[in-house]
């Protein structure tokens, strides 16, 4: 796995980030107690799409730019509270080979992923998607599953 500096250098090599900003980003993201991804997106160094697409490529994750045609497994909505899904921007978008495919926009935050594995009693495979797509699908999925 790439270290934070190495990951930032990938963005520099892609021409998306000025190399002079790398040390500043590393120091300041620690001060604000944000993941590297959250920091570079919130501070406008990179768009969310740029960060997620390159992160997906570098770590061999799938990237979905749209989730509007996805059906969330019913079991996910039964076992995982809407608050957990919303607070962590995380949602199952399918099951493949017995493992839940979990969409997140914060791949560097591992706690929610580990917690989901426990809640679902299953293996987890991470896929990446923009936050707005995840939030919209969370709202749709739980609205459809009220009372389930």
In words, what does this structure look like?
Strand 2 and strand 3 form a beta hairpin. This protein starts with a helix and ends with a helix. By secondary structure, the chain is an alpha/beta fold. It is elongated, with a radius of gyration of 16 Å. It is built from eight helices and four strands. Strands 1-4-3-2 form a four-stranded mixed beta sheet, sandwiched between helices. The longest helix is centred in the C-terminal third of the chain and has 14 residues.
Helical content class: 40-55%
Tell me the strand percentage band: 5-15%
Work out the helix count.
Answer: 8
Tell me the major beta sheet. Answer: 4 strands, mixed
**What is the CA-based Rg, rounded?**
16 Å
* N-C termini distance: 40 Å
Shape: elongated
The structural class is alpha/beta
- How many strand units? 4
Low-confidence runs of at least 5 consecutive residues = none
Strand and helix layout:
Layout: H1 4-13, H2 22-31, H3 36-42, H4 48-59, E1 62-63, H5 74-79, H6 82-88, E2 90-96, E3 99-104, H7 111-120, E4 124-128, H8 131-144
Give a quick rundown of the structure.
The protein has 148 residues and is of the alpha/beta class. Helix content is 51%, strand content 14%.
Can you tag this structure with a few keywords?
8 helices, 51% helix, four-stranded mixed β-sheet, alpha/beta
């Amino acid at each position: 796995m790439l270290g934070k500096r190495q990951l930032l250098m990938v963005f520099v090599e892609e021409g998306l980030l000025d190399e002079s900003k790398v040390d500043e980003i590393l120091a300041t993201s620690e001060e604000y107690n944000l993941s590297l991804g959250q920091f570079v997106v919130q501070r406008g160094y990179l768009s969310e799409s740029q960060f997620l697409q390159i992160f997906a490529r570098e770590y061999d994750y799938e990237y979905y730019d749209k989730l509007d045609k996805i059906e969330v497994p019913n079991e996910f909505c039964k076992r995982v509270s809407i608050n957990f899904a919303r607070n962590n921007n995380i949602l199952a978008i399918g099951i493949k080979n017995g493992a839940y495919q979990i969409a997140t926009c914060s791949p560097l935050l591992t706690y929610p992923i580990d917690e989901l594995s426990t809640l679902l009693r299953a293996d987890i495979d991470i896929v990446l998607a923009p936050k707005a797509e995840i939030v919209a699908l969370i709202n749709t999925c739980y609205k459809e599953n009220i009372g389930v």
